[in-house]
Specification:
elongated; alpha/beta; 5-stranded parallel beta sheet; 3 domains; Dehydroquinate synthase-like, alpha domain; 7-stranded mixed beta sheet; 22 helices; 529 residues
Length: 529
Amino acid sequence: MNIILVGFMGSGKTSVGHEIARRTGFRFLDTDELIVSREGASIPAIFRDKGEPYFRELESEIIAEVSYRTNLVISTGGGAVQNPENVRLLRQTGALVWLKTSPEVILRRTMSEQGARPLLNVQEPLREINRLLRKRAAYYEQADLAVDTSYITIGEAAQEICDQLGLGGQRLEVSLGDRSYEILLNPGILRSLSARLWALRPSRIAVVSNPTVHALYGPRVAESLRARGLQFFPILVPDGEEYKDLLWLYKVLGDLLRHGCDRRSVVVALGGGVVGDMAGFAAATFMRGIRCVQVPTTLLAQVDSSVGGKTGVNHPLGKNMIGAFHQPSLVVIDPETLQTLPQREFRAGLAEVIKYGVIWDAELFEMLVRDRKDICALGPRLHEAIVRSCRIKATVVGQDEKESGVRAILNFGHTVGHALEAVTGYRRYLHGEAVAVGMCAASDLGVRTRLLARQDARRIVNLIHDYGLPTRIPSDLSLEAMARAMLHDKKAEAGKVKFVLPTAIGMVRLVDHVPSSKLRETLEACRDK
């Protein structure tokens, strides 16, 4: 979104705007400066030679041009908000922030600039400031938030605005040609979620969650949404992969209808991968597609399922066989939610982080080996691992949105992993645990097909084991049932099972066909005795 600074002259719009731009990476634009550049004359000269109406017309033209761009900090002229069309255009892509300042401070700040401030070229400037402030008060009060800059520093003002708009921390972009969306990653950002949702101008917000996550974070989210006057309601689904099916999807869609949602409504997925997949699929299908914001609270969802637009539900014959590609409007990641995550689910999420190290980022793999204690203690290295994982996912999705090429490498470990989940009825393994076993099997298969050195396969298996994840197929499972489940996997074509096999740590290859004898050898070798 854009950040539009409004307020009287001398309120600090330019200096605070530059500081916000520096902190966020947004581009700073000053509408007055753009007018001066276009006219080749100063503001006082334009007022003197052509009059205020001409200036206001130029101002509106400039605002119309910049309002269709994004990731900007825009400093407007003090009187720009008096034109309703200016306000409408500016608000369609951003938040209006009013920098309030007392008349006395305004006078002090502008005394040396009165020649450059045409409206203050009067005998009693303080009286004129008070008169103009009274005249414009109702216009400034249209702003979405207000910050009093009278007695705080530029840095303090910028920090308060960034905090209220949830703009701190890491910002990554998923770029899909003419479309893009942001991944925002910052400890504590859940507290400012309402500002980010408010910027989408939703008619209603459906917060989809499960009872466990909703009990932990639902009240906090509800309080912030209520404070901004946003209309919202919760939709709760049971916790567990076995509930990610058409029956519960039907319930979610019914709740959207019962609460009067429309095409301007937004679905918020507050939870792990199951919630994210179901909420995303509901958003993809409701009224043929409405907006969805992913707010993942598990490590697995933060580094994988919340990014990329894959949504869907399971069928007894296969995992995620019914779904749609539906990109979120925004992904908001708060690492603080991992503090309440059970250890088993945390370890399951690490399986996906390990996957990124194997398929793309050898340095990430080495960091996982070297800094295991820090990562397991939720230290700084975990934050870095999440950022690196999201950056990889964003890069891959940006190159191949619908898995027609390079995106297939993200399925490393998933062919055997999905089969393991299917034959156990989605009740025995967490998704990351199943993928961990699948990565071990894929590494063994890589060795057997002479793509991967044996020592690299051993390092992959050892790292998975060191993070407390399973590495072997249970002895009580039928290998025939596993093989049948792989044939039903959505990546299989014409009765042939595709595999993503590592060729080195940090590199993989998509193999269209693996000899059944080699696959059988791998399943036997990776099975508990």
